[in-house]
Specification:
Elements lengths: L4 E5 L3 H13 L3 E5 L2 H10 L4 E5 L7 H11 L5 E5 L4 H9 L4 E4 L4 H32 L9 H14 L5 E4 L6 H10 L8 E5 L5 H9 L16 H4 L4 E5 L6 H13 L1 E3 L6 E3 L3 E6 L3 H6 L5 H7 L2 E4 L10 H15 L6 E2 L1 H9 L5 H15 L4 E2 L14 H4 L8 H19 L4 H8 L3 H11 L7
Parallel strand pairs: 1-2, 1-3, 3-4, 4-5, 6-11, 6-12, 7-8, 8-11, 13-14
Antiparallel strand pairs: 9-10
Helix pairs in contact: 2-3, 6-7, 13-15, 17-18, 18-19
Magnesium ion binds next to α7.
Length: about 450
């Protein structure tokens, strides 16, 4: 256990001596001061974890010590020792934010219990701070790996909207990093110290989802044995991440729309209107336009959500990111598994570059994790990678009758397929590939740059 430093403030030397020797025997570090002002001087020097102060003292009394301390650092708990009769004083100091009070004569067991409690309180506060710090570190925009132009645009938009209160809709295939972006938006916003609450609409059936989002009153339905505070209320002041929003039932959509529009709702079975201040970030890998066509998603909700849309491109359309991601995940899993893996062989990387990754970054991450575990040498080779990863046909996006992918993405996919095919046929010779395509080599180069096609045959 870390050192815990207690400051005793009392004008009576005998009182200080007895408490001090008791706490010292319990392995606490104890500092002392004979007056409030002297005590505050010690506090200002730093490193005090808890203050124990007498109430009646000639210069500053206990109440003034509490006030001065709260002003200096509200996180240092202070316990005030009052005479038995002075309940008024006790009430006053509690109002000013004292951690607790003890009546004289001080019962040493009670004192120890209080010190323990204060210690746990401090520990929880610092633990909480540390966790928040770690989360922020983990989810800040810099931790999102990318070098492709498409992702740069995505991150730019996300960074800019983070600071606003606007509702954001994040779209993209499974495993493209939607949740990662949602986290980055929260931790990049002014709400970062407030809660980020997540709700996954695909994981909960209809009425369960509604009470999960909005809460319910006791007895509102069979099984509602007590009041339940919903995610919207939990997220008050912070961000609510609604994942898989395409799976939300129609009836709940109505309620959600109102919550988004007016920041208000009622708990299930409740009549009291609850007002909240919540920033909503939603994500889906479903085709909302198609769901609207089928009458499964409300158009008004769609427009409400669609204020700012972030479209995450599938990994096969940002292949330039693959080498970087591979390096990132190797480092991550080498550390986790305590293995001294330095990288991947050229063949191994080429093999992955050709794969079409239907499961996107999550799939790449899993492949690398497995390879790190399997690898016998410092370099991952093709042997450590799953056999038979196919280049994929990208049929769905290239199929002219498939209207679910946005037009520009389909056109780009078609262009990409032709260019990659030509490069493959001409073994990476760009001037020959250009001739085959019937365009100039310069035109080919510029399209390759635009589409971030890496010529790994060369
Ligand atoms: N650009 C990136 N840099 C580093 N790691 C990433 C990146 N994008 C995604 N990941 C990692 O890939 C995994 C999948 O990301 P995430 O869970 O955010 O995807 P998703 O789009 O929410 O997927 P699903 O639709 O399946 O819920 C996570 O472990 C995430 O940390
Ligand atoms: Mg997700």
């Amino acid at each position: 256990m870390q050192e815990f430093r207690i400051l005793l403030i009392d004008d009576e030397p005998a009182q200080i001596t007895s408490i001090k020797s008791f706490l010292k025997r319990r392995n606490y570090t104890v500092l002392s001061a004979n007056s409030g002002s002297e005590g505050m001087a010690v506090v200002r020097e730093g490193n005090v974890d808890l203050v124990l102060t007498d109430f009646r003292m000639p210069d500053m009394n206990g109440l003034e010590v509490v006030k001065a301390l709260k002003e200096f650092n509200p996180e240092i708990p202070v316990v005030v020792i009052t005479a038995f009769s002075d309940t008024e004083d006790a009430v006053q100091v509690m109002k000013e934010g004292a951690f607790d009070y003890l009546a004289k004569p001080v019962n040493l067991d009670e004192l120890e219990a209080l010190v323990q409690k204060a210690r746990e309180h401090c520990y929880l506060i610092s633990e909480n701070k540390l966790l928040k710090e770690q989360l922020r570190e983990r989810y800040k925009f810099d931790s999102i790996i990318s070098q492709s132009g498409v992702m740069e645009d995505v991150l730019n938009t996300a960074g800019r909207v983070a600071r606003s209160k606007a509702t954001v809709l994040i779209r993209g295939e499974s495993g493209t990093g939607k949740e990662l972006i949602a986290n980055a938006i929260h931790y990049g916003s002014e709400r970062r110290d407030k809660p980020l609450i997540t709700v996954n609409c695909a994981a909960l059936a209809g009425n369960l989802l509604e009470s999960e989002l909005f809460g319910h009153e006791k007895g509102s339905f069979t099984g509602a044995i007590s009041r339940h505070i919903g995610r919207f209320e939990q997220a008050d002041g912070g961000t609510l991440f609604i994942d898989e929003i395409g799976d939300i039932p129609l009836l709940t959509q109505v309620k959600l729309l109102r919550a988004l529009q007016f920041g208000e709702f009622e708990r299930v079975g409740g009549s009291q209107t609850i007002k909240i201040d919540v920033r909503v970030v939603a994500a889906t890998n479903r085709n909302l336009e198609e769901l609207i066509e089928k009458g499964l998603f409300r158009e008004d909700l769609y427009y409400r959500l669609n204020v700012i849309t972030i479209q995450l491109p599938p990994l096969r359309e940002r292949k330039a990111d693959i080498p970087l991601l591979i390096r990132h995940f190797i480092k991550k899993y080498a550390r986790e598994n305590n293995k001294a893996i330095q990288g991947i062989s050229k063949e191994g990387q080429d093999y992955l570059m050709r794969y079409h990754f239907p499961g996107n970054i999550r799939e790449l991450e899993n492949i690398i994790e497995r390879a790190v575990v399997l690898a016998r040498d410092a370099i991952i080779t093709t042997d450590d990678l799953p056999a038979g990863l196919s280049a994929g046909s990208e049929k769905s996006i290239l199929d002219p009758r498939n209207f679910s992918d946005p037009f520009p993405l389909k056109v780009a996919a078609f262009e990409r397929a032709m260019i990659e095919e030509a490069l493959e046929l001409k073994k990476g010779n760009q001037s020959q590939a250009a001739r085959l395509l019937g365009i100039s080599e310069r035109h080919l180069r510029s399209r390759m740059q635009k589409l971030e096609i890496v010529n790994n045959k060369r």
